[in-house]
């Protein structure tokens, strides 16, 4: 029940002499007013920053160097001082939008100044400087908008480094993992964990593919994210790191279902001694953690992190892992009467069945017949699982 509902309902309770007016006030105080997110002002800041960039880009070549530097420094100071003044006057939303605009101008200024003096950077170092500015704003103002902006800057910089220079930028990685990771660990805020976990997955992809590591190192990186979950979550919070790691490893197993059957991919996956050492250490730690956990059923998640790429039939084994994961959560959900587990197992089972159908029947079956039979199969599965779910709910209510 939210604050508005409490205000409305408690008025009736007072009129019915169920509670006193004092008790009503105490109840309402337990539901503080929610602060609206400054979405419009944030977008306003982004549009102003883009407008600045567009104007500079279209008139840049016609300006003198002093005019260019004057525009960059003047705009930067104008927006920064304006944001600082607004924050001092407690106009936090306006101040945040002005400071965010200043941050965008600062980043644009780095690249434009380099272009003006013919300085070419052969790394993503400008993004590192830009991210330091974003991080500094976060520590000065303790505002999550600047944290998100810094995560975006480091992640975009890392993608840029991977695509243009085919390398993972070490300092951006250090800043992201230890600087922003420390903020997530210290504050344990769900939104920050979500943004960081998305950035972590993208950083992992850039690290593996730009540095030429075999793709299976992603299993280790996703398993590390899974284990880090305990450090960044409070009791009762949604486990963002763990959910992100599970979703990522599900996608990776799906990739294996479709590609491990080809000789090219199998030949590329020469076994790595170091990989198995690192994986074994993390996996044993995960098993111990699951064993001492209050919920021993979470070992089911670990099935997905088992590496199967060295087997000639790794595609089939990946499919077996996915089916095992889905069925074990379904069975555990029915046994323990946990609706969330039943729903998770049902969705995983339907998706895995669809994957198996595509993998096994696509090559030799007529396309029309393929989709027709696939549709009937999914209808039958949905009917059966929905029937079981309804029986489960009725049993639970009884």
Structural class: mainly alpha
Low-confidence runs of at least 5 consecutive residues: none
Name the helicity range.
over 70%
Helices and strands, in N-to-C order?
A: HHHHHHHHHHHHHHHHH
What's the structural blueprint in terms of helices and strands?
Elements: H1 3-15, H2 21-29, H3 39-59, H4 65-88, H5 92-116, H6 125-141, H7 144-165, H8 170-187, H9 190-210, H10 217-228, H11 240-259, H12 263-268, H13 273-292, H14 299-302, H15 314-336, H16 339-361, H17 367-397
Report what the structure shows.
This protein is mostly helical and 398 residues long. The protein has helices spanning 3-15, 21-29, 39-59, 65-88, 92-116, 125-141, 144-165, 170-187, 190-210, 217-228, 240-259, 263-268, 273-292, 299-302, 314-336, 339-361, 367-397. Helix 1 (3-15) packs antiparallel against helix 2. 27% of the residues are buried. The mean pLDDT is 81.
Summarize this entry quickly.
The chain has 17 helices and no strands.
Label this structure with key terms.
DUF2157 domain-containing protein; transmembrane helix; 398 residues
